[in-house]
Amino acid sequence: MTPGSAPRSGRWRSLGKLLLLAAGLVAGGALLREMGGVPGTDWVDASIRDEGLWGELVFVAVGAAITAAGVPRQSVAFLGGYAFGVVLGTGLAMAAQLLGCVASYGWARLLGRDWAERRLRGRFGHRLRPLRDILAANPFGTTLALRLLPVGSNIGLNLLAGMAALRLLPFLAGSALGYLPQTVVFALLGKGIRVEGAWQLALAAVLLAISIGIGLWLLQRHRAGRTLDADGAP
Hints:
- There is one protein chain.
- By secondary structure, the chain is mainly alpha-helical.
- The protein is built from 11 helices and no strands.
- The protein has one domain (53-222).
Protein backbone atom coordinates (compact mmCIF):
# COMPACT_ATOMS: atom_id res chain seq x y z
CA MET A 1 0.00 0.00 0.00
CA THR A 2 1.44 3.36 -0.97
CA PRO A 3 1.75 6.15 1.60
CA GLY A 4 -1.40 8.21 1.77
CA SER A 5 -3.56 5.60 0.06
CA ALA A 6 -5.32 4.64 3.32
CA PRO A 7 -6.47 8.21 4.08
CA ARG A 8 -7.65 8.62 0.49
CA SER A 9 -9.54 5.34 0.72
CA GLY A 10 -11.16 6.47 3.95
CA ARG A 11 -12.23 9.74 2.36
CA TRP A 12 -13.78 7.92 -0.59
CA ARG A 13 -15.66 5.61 1.79
CA SER A 14 -16.95 8.62 3.73
CA LEU A 15 -18.03 10.31 0.49
CA GLY A 16 -19.82 7.14 -0.57
CA LYS A 17 -21.69 7.01 2.73
CA LEU A 18 -22.75 10.63 2.36
CA LEU A 19 -24.06 9.96 -1.13
CA LEU A 20 -25.97 6.90 0.07
CA LEU A 21 -27.46 8.90 2.93
CA ALA A 22 -28.51 11.68 0.55
CA ALA A 23 -30.09 9.16 -1.83
CA GLY A 24 -31.89 7.54 1.09
CA LEU A 25 -33.24 10.92 2.16
CA VAL A 26 -34.67 11.59 -1.30
CA ALA A 27 -36.17 8.10 -1.48
CA GLY A 28 -37.64 8.38 2.00
CA GLY A 29 -39.18 11.76 1.24
CA ALA A 30 -40.71 10.45 -1.97
CA LEU A 31 -42.12 7.45 -0.10
CA LEU A 32 -43.67 9.66 2.58
CA ARG A 33 -45.19 11.86 -0.10
CA GLU A 34 -46.77 8.83 -1.79
CA MET A 35 -48.04 7.45 1.53
CA GLY A 36 -49.77 10.72 2.32
CA GLY A 37 -50.05 10.04 6.05
CA VAL A 38 -47.12 11.54 7.95
CA PRO A 39 -47.22 11.49 11.79
CA GLY A 40 -48.09 14.91 13.19
CA THR A 41 -49.47 16.41 10.00
CA ASP A 42 -53.09 15.78 11.05
CA TRP A 43 -52.48 17.88 14.18
CA VAL A 44 -50.87 20.60 12.07
CA ASP A 45 -53.77 20.61 9.62
CA ALA A 46 -56.37 20.74 12.38
CA SER A 47 -54.80 23.09 14.92
CA ILE A 48 -51.81 25.00 13.55
CA ARG A 49 -52.03 25.98 9.91
CA ASP A 50 -54.10 29.06 9.10
CA GLU A 51 -54.37 29.96 12.79
CA GLY A 52 -52.13 33.00 12.48
CA LEU A 53 -49.96 34.12 15.39
CA TRP A 54 -51.77 31.81 17.81
CA GLY A 55 -50.90 28.77 15.72
CA GLU A 56 -47.26 29.85 15.51
CA LEU A 57 -47.02 30.32 19.28
CA VAL A 58 -48.63 26.94 19.94
CA PHE A 59 -46.25 25.29 17.48
CA VAL A 60 -43.18 26.80 19.19
CA ALA A 61 -44.43 25.89 22.67
CA VAL A 62 -45.27 22.28 21.75
CA GLY A 63 -42.06 21.92 19.72
CA ALA A 64 -39.96 23.18 22.64
CA ALA A 65 -41.67 20.81 25.06
CA ILE A 66 -41.25 17.70 22.94
CA THR A 67 -37.61 18.41 22.02
CA ALA A 68 -36.84 19.05 25.70
CA ALA A 69 -38.41 15.65 26.41
CA GLY A 70 -36.25 13.90 23.81
CA VAL A 71 -38.28 13.85 20.59
CA PRO A 72 -35.90 14.26 17.61
CA ARG A 73 -35.54 17.93 16.69
CA GLN A 74 -35.68 17.05 12.99
CA SER A 75 -39.35 16.12 13.36
CA VAL A 76 -40.14 19.62 14.63
CA ALA A 77 -38.33 21.12 11.63
CA PHE A 78 -40.23 18.81 9.27
CA LEU A 79 -43.59 19.85 10.72
CA GLY A 80 -42.52 23.50 10.66
CA GLY A 81 -41.84 23.30 6.93
CA TYR A 82 -45.08 21.40 6.39
CA ALA A 83 -47.13 23.97 8.31
CA PHE A 84 -45.50 27.30 7.45
CA GLY A 85 -43.18 26.83 4.49
CA VAL A 86 -39.39 26.77 4.44
CA VAL A 87 -38.50 30.26 5.71
CA LEU A 88 -41.05 30.77 8.49
CA GLY A 89 -41.06 27.07 9.33
CA THR A 90 -37.28 27.10 9.77
CA GLY A 91 -37.44 30.16 12.02
CA LEU A 92 -40.19 28.77 14.24
CA ALA A 93 -38.58 25.33 14.42
CA MET A 94 -35.25 26.94 15.39
CA ALA A 95 -37.00 28.86 18.18
CA ALA A 96 -38.63 25.66 19.44
CA GLN A 97 -35.39 23.66 19.29
CA LEU A 98 -33.37 26.31 21.14
CA LEU A 99 -36.02 26.70 23.85
CA GLY A 100 -36.04 22.92 24.26
CA CYS A 101 -32.25 22.92 24.40
CA VAL A 102 -32.20 25.57 27.15
CA ALA A 103 -34.91 23.74 29.09
CA SER A 104 -33.13 20.37 29.21
CA TYR A 105 -29.73 22.05 29.79
CA GLY A 106 -31.19 24.09 32.65
CA TRP A 107 -32.86 21.04 34.17
CA ALA A 108 -29.60 19.08 34.19
CA ARG A 109 -27.59 22.00 35.57
CA LEU A 110 -29.95 23.39 38.19
CA LEU A 111 -32.35 20.66 39.25
CA GLY A 112 -31.56 17.23 37.93
CA ARG A 113 -27.78 16.89 37.83
CA ASP A 114 -27.76 13.54 39.68
CA TRP A 115 -30.61 12.18 37.55
CA ALA A 116 -28.93 13.38 34.34
CA GLU A 117 -25.62 11.83 35.33
CA ARG A 118 -27.22 8.43 35.97
CA ARG A 119 -29.05 8.57 32.63
CA LEU A 120 -26.01 9.66 30.69
CA ARG A 121 -23.77 7.03 32.25
CA GLY A 122 -26.21 4.38 31.15
CA ARG A 123 -26.36 5.77 27.62
CA PHE A 124 -22.73 6.67 26.94
CA GLY A 125 -20.87 4.42 29.38
CA HIS A 126 -17.09 4.76 29.12
CA ARG A 127 -17.42 7.48 26.45
CA LEU A 128 -18.98 9.97 28.87
CA ARG A 129 -15.81 11.44 30.36
CA PRO A 130 -13.85 11.93 27.07
CA LEU A 131 -16.86 13.61 25.46
CA ARG A 132 -17.35 15.84 28.47
CA ASP A 133 -13.65 16.78 28.41
CA ILE A 134 -13.79 17.69 24.71
CA LEU A 135 -16.89 19.82 25.28
CA ALA A 136 -15.32 21.58 28.25
CA ALA A 137 -12.16 22.37 26.27
CA ASN A 138 -14.05 23.95 23.36
CA PRO A 139 -17.80 24.21 24.05
CA PHE A 140 -18.65 26.26 20.95
CA GLY A 141 -16.62 24.36 18.35
CA THR A 142 -17.34 20.87 19.64
CA THR A 143 -21.06 21.57 20.06
CA LEU A 144 -21.20 22.97 16.51
CA ALA A 145 -19.49 19.89 15.07
CA LEU A 146 -21.74 17.46 16.95
CA ARG A 147 -24.95 19.32 16.06
CA LEU A 148 -24.09 19.21 12.36
CA LEU A 149 -24.10 15.40 12.41
CA PRO A 150 -27.44 13.57 12.06
CA VAL A 151 -26.43 10.97 14.66
CA GLY A 152 -26.27 11.01 18.42
CA SER A 153 -28.79 12.26 20.95
CA ASN A 154 -29.91 15.88 21.06
CA ILE A 155 -31.25 15.60 24.60
CA GLY A 156 -28.19 13.57 25.63
CA LEU A 157 -25.88 16.39 24.60
CA ASN A 158 -28.10 18.95 26.34
CA LEU A 159 -28.05 16.98 29.56
CA LEU A 160 -24.32 16.37 29.35
CA ALA A 161 -23.67 20.09 28.84
CA GLY A 162 -25.81 20.99 31.82
CA MET A 163 -24.33 18.29 34.01
CA ALA A 164 -20.81 19.47 33.12
CA ALA A 165 -21.84 23.11 33.77
CA LEU A 166 -20.68 24.31 30.35
CA ARG A 167 -21.03 28.04 29.77
CA LEU A 168 -24.48 28.57 28.32
CA LEU A 169 -23.73 31.19 25.65
CA PRO A 170 -21.01 29.25 23.74
CA PHE A 171 -23.05 26.06 24.02
CA LEU A 172 -26.22 27.78 22.81
CA ALA A 173 -24.41 29.59 19.98
CA GLY A 174 -22.82 26.33 18.77
CA SER A 175 -26.20 24.62 19.01
CA ALA A 176 -27.95 27.36 17.02
CA LEU A 177 -25.43 27.28 14.16
CA GLY A 178 -25.33 23.51 14.20
CA TYR A 179 -29.12 23.19 14.24
CA LEU A 180 -29.62 25.49 11.25
CA PRO A 181 -28.56 23.26 8.30
CA GLN A 182 -30.63 20.25 9.32
CA THR A 183 -33.55 22.48 10.26
CA VAL A 184 -33.53 23.90 6.74
CA VAL A 185 -33.17 20.38 5.32
CA PHE A 186 -36.16 18.97 7.16
CA ALA A 187 -38.25 22.10 6.61
CA LEU A 188 -37.59 21.60 2.90
CA LEU A 189 -38.70 18.00 3.25
CA GLY A 190 -41.90 19.05 5.02
CA LYS A 191 -42.65 21.64 2.35
CA GLY A 192 -41.83 19.14 -0.38
CA ILE A 193 -44.20 16.56 1.10
CA ARG A 194 -47.06 19.06 1.18
CA VAL A 195 -46.66 20.53 -2.30
CA GLU A 196 -45.11 17.46 -3.98
CA GLY A 197 -41.95 19.39 -4.79
CA ALA A 198 -39.24 17.06 -6.04
CA TRP A 199 -36.67 19.87 -6.12
CA GLN A 200 -37.14 20.51 -2.38
CA LEU A 201 -36.35 16.87 -1.66
CA ALA A 202 -33.23 16.93 -3.86
CA LEU A 203 -31.99 20.21 -2.34
CA ALA A 204 -32.59 18.82 1.14
CA ALA A 205 -30.42 15.80 0.32
CA VAL A 206 -27.57 17.98 -0.99
CA LEU A 207 -27.67 20.29 2.04
CA LEU A 208 -27.71 17.34 4.44
CA ALA A 209 -24.64 15.81 2.79
CA ILE A 210 -22.79 19.14 2.99
CA SER A 211 -23.78 19.58 6.64
CA ILE A 212 -22.52 16.13 7.58
CA GLY A 213 -19.26 16.66 5.71
CA ILE A 214 -18.58 19.93 7.54
CA GLY A 215 -19.46 18.35 10.88
CA LEU A 216 -17.09 15.45 10.35
CA TRP A 217 -14.30 17.80 9.26
CA LEU A 218 -14.74 20.01 12.33
CA LEU A 219 -14.86 17.03 14.67
CA GLN A 220 -11.66 15.63 13.14
CA ARG A 221 -9.94 19.00 13.61
CA HIS A 222 -10.91 19.17 17.28
CA ARG A 223 -9.75 15.62 17.92
CA ALA A 224 -6.48 16.21 16.08
CA GLY A 225 -5.89 19.40 18.04
CA ARG A 226 -6.44 17.64 21.34
CA THR A 227 -4.06 14.85 20.30
CA LEU A 228 -1.35 17.35 19.42
CA ASP A 229 -1.85 19.16 22.74
CA ALA A 230 -1.59 15.89 24.63
CA ASP A 231 1.54 14.80 22.74
CA GLY A 232 3.19 18.16 23.28
CA ALA A 233 2.35 18.40 26.98
CA PRO A 234 5.41 18.23 29.27
